[in-house]
Amino acid sequence: xSGITERVKIGFALPQYGSHAREGARIAHYATTLEHAGAxxxxxxxxxxxATDPQVGYGxxxxxxxxxxxxxxxxVVLGIAAAATERVRLGTNVLIAPLHRPAVLARALTTxxxxxxxxxxxxxxxxxxxxxxxxxEVPFTHRGARLEETLDALEAIWTSDPAAYQGRFxxxxxxxxxxxxxxxxxIHLAAFSPAGLARIGRRGDxxxxxxxxxxxxxxxxxxxxxxxxxxxxxxxAGRDPQAIDTVLRVNIAAGTDLELVADxxxxxxxxxxFDDVFLDLLYVTDSVDHMLDTAADLLQRLxx
Length: 304
Description:
Elements: E1 9-13, H1 18-21, H2 27-37, E2 41-44, H3 74-84, E3 89-92, E4 95-96, H4 102-115, E5 120-125, H5 130-135, H6 143-159, E6 163-166, E7 171-175, E8 187-189, H7 194-203, E9 206-207, E10 210-213, H8 219-236, E11 245-246, E12 248-252, H9 258-272, E13 276-280, H10 288-303
């Protein structure tokens, strides 16, 4: 596997959850240190609340990780990283789009895009927590349709002035929209269901799949089967599948040996040909310094 990741872009999640969130004052230091170390991208996620008695747990379990009890706002974290860096791409994986009114979401994303001088990747999804929807006072039903309309509304706001949108679930009154992104942010979507994969093929700029470590054997081949659904939908919509990116999120379980992480990334890259990866160190580090040391170790292993 030596050298297989020389061509692969490697990024990391920003400090945002659990014990990392308590060190929010060090976000800028973390971002600049990793940029100087050679990281290609930095990422945030979104958790609105961690329900005490969840109807749906996280990751197929009945519970929600304790780390989600302590969370920093994704837009603030990304804005700090944008102001502190010059080169790395800045992404969301993912924002739960239906929780946000489109005008508010467009303003926040445009702000990050402008502050970062055009480095934003807008990763969106529909979430899984009924309680988060309740906290945002948004019905849990019709999440896919709400996402579709939110995408339409974002497109209108980013490309028109005056801008307006009228849908079944979301509305944006006609308004002046002079401030535009440096360039229209690429919209990546997280999906594993057939409907979600087909949506990416029809209108997404990228796909955000996940790689668990440890994980089942043959994960890369499974990702290729899912990617084929995206490609087929793209062709049916008259789009070029090659224009749709893939960014692999690597979720690392607590206690995982870093050599296994590196071996898994090498293996999945070799099996899929996907060349953009970011690693979430939430469960294997307990401080920002620990995150930085671990990220440096993984960069060395992956670039070897």
